[in-house]
Amino acid sequence: DAGVIQSPRHEVTEMGQEVTLRCKPISGHDYLFWYRQTMMRGLELLIYFNNNVPIDDSGMPEDRFSAKMPNASFSTLKIQPSEPRDSAVYFCASTLRSRLSGGQFFGPGTRLTVL
Amino acid sequence: KQEVTQIPAALSVPEGENLVLNCSFTDSAIYNLQWFRQDPGKGLTSLLLIQSSQREQTSGRLNASLDKSSGRSTLYIAASQPGDSATYLCAVRNNAGGTSYGKLTFGQGTILTVHP
User: Fold this and answer.
1) HSE of B11 in the Cβ direction (CA atoms, 13 Å)?
2) How far is CA A34 from CA A5, A56, A99, A112, B37, in A?
3) What is the separation of C-alpha B94 from the centre of its chain, rounded to a whole number of angstroms?
4) CB within 8 Å: B44 and A106
């Protein structure tokens, strides 16, 4: 299995631009999680989906952030408009419900820099 | 709201030393606790998972303990090696129910450097 796939790996953009981060979970996994990691705040859960349905989006910082999961094999995290304080590493993770007593599998992350 | 704290924030040791990383959490009603390793510029790799009913888990040179009632976990690394250098993250999963099911709360991590 290829593991969780994220793209792009690095993104540099200017303030005000729209940014779209992509994630492909491990095949068969029915939970998908989006996290953000910064030096100041560490790793924070932004939102998670179960069977493509958003379950908890309480970690989404503000309306500029939105996430979708149109099918079981693809999810996007969009920031519009982007701001310098959005600069961070964004991780996607997935797991299987029957393994929720087990662990989440993390992707390599997307390093976002907003100038 | 669950809060997870890791001590120390950074640790530098000579190769061969045994070491302990500490993790504490404020809400003892957890489902399980997980230790991760993160290498620079990389994602997270799960090291050990302890269910709330367990006291410890072992994998090779790693041993993780859990004292749920006191809200503490330790990760013990025996005979440390330079390849162990990484950031170690502790994460707790809240009990099932409501929107908290499956949600991990992470500590800030301990940056470990093992020098030859």
Assistant:
1) 24
2) 13, 11, 18, 14, 18
3) 15
4) yes
pLDDT at residue B94 in the model: 79
> Is pLDDT of B98 > 80?
no
Question: What percentage of chain A's residues is helix, strand, coil (to nearest 5)?
Answer: 5, 55, 40
Q: Which two tokens stand for residue B33?
A: 């606790």
Say if A70 is an interface residue toward chain B (CB within 8 Å).
no
Q: pLDDT digit string (tens) for A46-86?
A: 999 999 999 989 899 889 999 999 999 999 999 999 999 99
Q: For residue B100, give the H/E element and its range.
A: none
Q: How confident is the model at residue B40 (pLDDT cuts 50, 70, 90)?
A: confident
Bridge partner residues of B93 (DSSP): B32, B104
**Helices and strands per DSSP (H, E), number in chain A:** 0, 11
Chain B interface test: which of A43, A57, A95 (most B C-beta within 10 Å): A43
Q: Residues A70, A5, A31, B72: is their CA dihedral positive or negative?
A: negative
